[in-house]
């Protein structure tokens, strides 16, 4: 059977009209269809990754490293807190003035914690990521002016000792970064052992501050400057 003839002037129905939508109404998008089908509206709900934006995560990203694990954070902050407490006890037993005790507690928090932080996989991935050069590492070392802070705040810790510690650590850092990659690790340990004798020899170092120079060496030469061993960054075949 054929369809009945339409009166003259009546247009053919469009595909849109056949679907029941008025002319000019746009097709629904695939996303909109999916939203109606699932009952969801707007962007998807944030998952566990939303916690990355919390204040605590931003703080640990700065104090430890971006993406640090819970274990790395716990050990690093624990070492920093215990180290600061030990340094405070030594300073109070000396006895040192309270401003010196405060300075030593803050410096100890940085060095005890930093020695652990810089040894973590997360920190090594961050500080030795692609694009980081010897210049970045040496600037990091140069920024550690704590020897002069101690000379200013701690009675008995002389400016000559501060200069000796600062220059010795900086010179050792230059030698470590200049060493061939396969030899960088043994060079760092050799220089740490040698400089350790040099910076702990001055007689004007108070007993309450005797921990300072060794920890500075560990944090900078051994922990910060050395990339992670199994990344291949410091291994390039046979040593010369």
From TrEMBL:
Keywords: Membrane, Transmembrane, Transmembrane helix. The keyword Transmembrane helix applies. It comes from the Bacteria. Residues 1-11 have a biased composition (Pro residues). The chain crosses the membrane at residues 73-91, 97-117, 138-155, 161-179, 186-203. Residues 39-55 have a biased composition (Low complexity). Residues 1-57 are annotated as: Disordered. The keyword Transferase does not apply. This is Uncharacterized protein. It comes from Streptomyces cremeus.
